[in-house]
Amino acid sequence: MISSAPTPKKLTSIEEYKAFLDKYDTFLLDCDGVLWHSNTVIDGVLETVKFLRENGKRLVFVTNNSTLSRPNYVKKFERLGIQATEKDIFSSAFATAVYLRNILNFPKDKRVYVIGESGIVDELKEVGIETTGSSDDNGVTMTHADFGTIEDDPTIGAVVSGFDINLNYSKLAKAFKYLHNKDDVPFILTNDDATFPSISGHYPGTGALAQPLVFALGRQPLVMGKPNKPMLDCFFSNYHTDPARTCMVGDRLDTDIDFGAQGNIDTLMVLTGVSTEKEALDPEQPIKPTYIIQSFGEFAKLA
Ligand SMILES: O=C(O)[C@H](O)[C@H](O)COP(=O)(O)O
Ligand SMILES: [Mg+2]
Fold first, then answer.
1. pLDDT digits (tens, 9 = 90+) for 162-194
2. What is the CA radius of gyration of the chain?
3. Is 192 within any annotated ligand binding site?
4. For binding substrate, which residues are annotated in this chain's numbering (predicted)?
């Protein structure tokens, strides 16, 4: 079906960059694929961030990457040369913690089994929620004789699954045990990005890593990250911005650009990450950015 969304405008000249920036005071910036690839900053991004801040623009970082807590993101930003504070960082791990505390009123006598990295564990701890799993189960190898050793645990009140570079069968088996035939135990996914944009190409993302559990359980998880409501609520309830003067900058149509659309704000898609210009211009593509630019680093040409 042909999309009714207007055709995105590609920004290519200095004049267009200036006119674009004059329209907005606040930029919501995705991270992976926009600012950096893992620990490598994309060319021109540091100069762009400096230029925007020198021209009075507010920058807020909105990432689906659940591997780091906000304090650890602050350290990563600083290490890569970008000044940032915790209050300017919204991650899917933070949105998950807020959802468990504020929406699910997670019971004090329960714990969360985590498939994921320190970001989830630290953000849950920050809101008083105890966890198990995560790095505790890294490197655990199983034999067929071990199936009998996986016990149920009545203290597990939810399972949260995020990006886990140390995913293994033991973690999947435990999570399955805690969720199987237990619809009262929430199954939460920090985000469902299918792929992860690294410096050397794309690899399976958080959404892909969760599929063994989703298929085995025959159950769809609650998804927190962009473009879903928990992240929208987490952001817009904590951050007051004029939608007409705000722009979401992202590399992915089905997370970043859709997040902007659902937040009724304009969007800028960069071509340094996951989604391509061809995909964005596809007449059948329902999610369309307002603007497209080769790279967020392009604005450095204005400095
Ligand atoms: O697999 C993932 O979790 C995503 O690829 C990744 O984390 C996306 O992060 P973002 O682009 O939202 O910063
Ligand atoms: Mg991204």
1. 999 999 999 999 999 999 999 999 999 999 999
2. 20
3. no
4. 226
6-34 pLDDT, tens digit each: 899 999 999 999 999 999 999 999 999 99
Catalytic residues: 30, 32
CB 299 within 8 A of CB 18: no
First-residue to last-residue Cα distance in the chain: 42
Q: Is the CB of 254 under 6 A from ligand 1?
A: no
ipTM above threshold 0.90: yes
Rama region for 85: left / alpha / beta (φ>0; ψ in -120 to 50; rest) = beta
- On whether 251 is known to bind a ligand per the annotation, the reply is yes
CA–CA dist 270, 251 (Å, integer): 5
Domains, the chain, ranges and CATH? 13-64+242-274+287-302 (3.40.50.1000), 93-223 (3.40.50.1000)
Q: 227: cis peptide before it, omega within 30°? A: yes
Distance 36 CA to ligand 1 centre (A): 11
By C-alpha distance, which of 93, 73, 61 is closest to 248?
61
Ligand 1 within 6 A of CB of 190: no
Q: Which residues contact 103 (CB under 8 A, 6 or more apart)?
A: 230
